[in-house]
Specification:
With about 280 residues, the chain is mainly beta. The protein is built from two helices and 22 strands. It has a six-stranded antiparallel β-sheet with strand order 4-5-8-9-3-14, covered by helices on one side. Strands 1-16-21-18-19 form a five-stranded antiparallel β-sheet, with no helix packed on it.
């Protein structure tokens, strides 16, 4: 789990909470940065189709057993030396199915396909009544799931994006609105950084089922341009998509804002943004 910064009270809007070479101002916000390091090995791993990944190499052999296959939602390929499939990871915004690869040499790799939105790595913690600003990835949970069945304790994983060999950093920004309101964060990317990918996970919900729920509306804006808007009476709606990197023009302070309006019920909304980039 990434826990670089904790929640702050709302009157601390625009105070610096997390500093890297990027400039980031946060309000009731969490941010997590991790290095991206290329792995070496696992010849049966489908690197050509993989995107963002989390991986571990342990110094002990792993047995590919029938019991291990039970950890998978779907087994795609299995042999005496490796297994590849999908693992179900659940959180309050729904289920995701990252791929997981394990081989007898000790490699554990969880990944999303290159064609899937990178923001699927976000695992929403807490629940819709009390969403958390702590950050954990669905890839980590997928690794924990298979490791538990294999009766192996894994160390903290490394991360890598197979689409962008030059990228060396991943930054996750997350903010939640546990009730009606508006929140904003600001980010400025230096000219010497190279941004390869931006992706977001936006959700809004009622606390109750649609039969008893009131209407709600939630909106995500970037520099006063509406990126997405969800509204209705559904228990929960979500949008997970990649964004053009051109939206984050360097050396400009960009505002990312979410708003949530509720009529006759209570609910919450949240935004998570993932940036894959190269830091000099």
């Amino acid at each position: 789990m990434f826990e670089i910064s904790k929640d702050r009270r709302e009157d601390m809007c625009q105070k610096m909470m997390f500093v890297i070479s990027m400039v980031i101002f946060l309000w009731v916000f969490a941010a997590a940065q991790t290095m991206l390091n290329p792995p070496a090995g696992f010849p049966a791993f489908p690197a050509q189709s993989a995107g963002i990944s989390a991986y571990v190499k342990i110094d002990q052999p792993v047995r590919i057993t029938e019991a291990l296959t039970k950890a998978f939602y779907r087994v795609i390929d299995v042999s005496a030396s490796h297994i590849l499939g999908t693992v179900q990871v659940s959180h309050f915004a729904g289920n995701v199915y990252p791929h997981v690869y394990i081989d007898t040499d000790g490699w554990f790799v969880a990944f999303f396909l290159a064609t899937e939105p990178t923001a699927l790595v976000i695992q929403w913690l807490g629940d819709t009544n009390n969403p958390s600003a702590a950050i954990k990835t669905t890839l980590e949970t997928a690794l924990e799931t298979v490791a538990k069945v294999a009766r192996i304790t894994l160390p903290k994983p490394s991360f890598y994006d197979f689409r962008f060999p030059e990228a060396n950093k991943m930054l996750i920004l997350l903010s939640v609105l546990p009730s009606e309101g508006t929140k904003a964060m600001y980010i400025k990317i230096p000219n010497e950084y190279k941004l390869f990918l931006s992706s977001y996970f936006f959700y809004a919900c009622n606390f109750y089922e649609a039969l008893f729920a009131g209407e709600y509306a939630a909106m995500l804006e970037l520099d006063e341009t509406t990126i997405t808007k969800v509204e209705g009476r559904e228990n929960l709606r979500q949008v997970v998509e990649d964004l053009p990197t051109s939206y984050f023009e360097p050396e400009i302070l960009h505002e990312i804002k979410i708003s949530f309006i509720q009529r006759g019920d209570a609910g919450s909304a949240g935004i998570a943004i993932v940036l894959i980039y190269r830091e000099p």
